[in-house]
Amino acid sequence: MGKRNYYYIVIVVCACAMAAASNGIFNLLAVLYAPIAGAFGVGIGSTNMYYTIALLTCGFGGPVAVKLMRKISFRVLLGAGTALSVLSFVLLSRITALWQLYILAFTQGLGSAAFGAVVLVIVINSWFRKRVGLVMGIMTSSMGLLGTVFSPVLNSVTVNRGWRAAFMTLAILTLCLCLPGVIFLRRTPAEAGMTAFGDSGVNSAASEVRADRAEGQKAKIFTAPFILFMIACLMFVYASSVPGHLSKYAVDHGFTSAEGAAFVSVAMVGNVLSKLSIGIISDKFGAKRAMTLFLCITMLGLAGLVFLTPGRTVMSVLAFMCGCAFSITATGMPLASKDLFRPEAYMDSYSILSVVGMVGSAASMTVIGFIYDSFGSYTVPLGIVLLFDLGGLLLLYAAYARRAKEN
Q1: Helix (H) or strand (E) segment spanning residue 145
Q2: Which of 224, 210, 232 is nearest to 347 (CA)?
Q3: Residue 181 in contact with residue 74, Cβ under 8 Å?
Q4: CB of 323 within 8 A of CB of 270?
Q5: Is 2-193+209-406 a domain of CATH 3.90.1010.10?
Q6: Which of the two residues, 73 and 283, has the higher pLDDT score?
Q7: 262-288 pLDDT, tens digit each
Q8: 3-state SS string over 27-62?
């Protein structure tokens, strides 16, 4: 029993490391956009296109990876994705033109999709019948934890050795994070000769059959609650792109680049703590109330960035609050999906929502960058993001109301 309990921990650790290497890496890239833009003589919006392309590719690649994991060896899928992602970072350290940045953004996003959030959510749901929300919160928190710990390190490498060395650092980091998962992670407990956590020996086989049937059943997806929630999620993702601009925002307000990187780290602390908290609060009070709480915190942070001229302490508080935006899309979205959609529709619904979320996130980083380039200030783009969060909150409540009416 001790050995079995240990392996559940191994699964969680491997999932956390791969989540950090996939979606979490995108948070680190914020410190590289300005140096790359300066090297090639382009605006911030042009370098933000890396984020857009990589995230779009990762988003659309997620459902494809889900299909592949049923047809090929899970280890082969994870290993191929890891190799492609690592190789992309190595080649990024050697680019000589902006178009090469865009091509390698595509390959890096494709590699990340093979071990990204969509795949890992399915794995977690296979391995855990109890405490799924807590485990999901821990896994998604790892994405922000990487930014908290490594953003200052990557900024230091960039300042002292250049952005090319920073990309090589990311290649090594990705390999170190993914290798344990390639070796130890299994698609289902049955592949490791175990049962899911929370299953009794008698019911485990039946539970796994029901779970597989739920994944494979065709169900009506595009209902009114789904459409309302999908639009809300599309609006929420804009706020999750704001921490990626905090470094530049800070420099524009008189802070140093090191202080800007520190504020990004503070935002990642908010990222980590809010993802853990939203899962716990959701288990006790429901996903809707948990999302409402962290949406309000995020909106207060955005309002502060728009209307205040923050000092160092206030800026740290606002960065922390803006970091809470990640909990809405990364943890709140799958938890609310279980409330809003029937079991047989959950996996298909979540796959679609993950693509929508990735598309929105990819577009939001670049859109905010280009609006900044147009106005020379973050006041307008951040004001728009604030309005989006408010509108999304109203749509969230409308989705729950429609779902209650259908029931």
Answers
A1: helix 132-161
A2: 210
A3: no
A4: yes
A5: no
A6: 73
A7: 888 888 888 888 988 888 888 788 889
A8: HHCHHHHHHHHHHHCCCHHHHHHHHHHHHHHHHHHH
Q: Residue 48 and residue 180: Cα distance in Å, rounded? A: 31
Buried b (16+ CB within 10 A) or exposed e, 51-87: bbbbbbbbbbbbbebbebbeeeebbebbbbbbbbbbb
Round to whole Å and give the CA distance between 7 and 298: 36
- Residues 336, 340, 343, 346, Cα dihedral to 10°: -60
Residue 200's pLDDT band (cuts 50, 70, 90): low
User: What's the per-residue H, E or C state across 228-284?
Assistant: HHHHHHHHHHHHHCHHHHHHHHHHHCCCCHHHHHHHHHHHHHHHHHHHHHHHHHHHH
Determine the residue type at 71: K
CB 350 within 8 A of CB 334: yes
Strands (E), 41-131: none
Please, which residues have CB within 8 angstroms of residue 317's CB and are 6 or more apart in sequence? 301, 304
**pTM summary value:** 0.72
Q: What beta strand segments (E) does 290-360 contain?
A: none
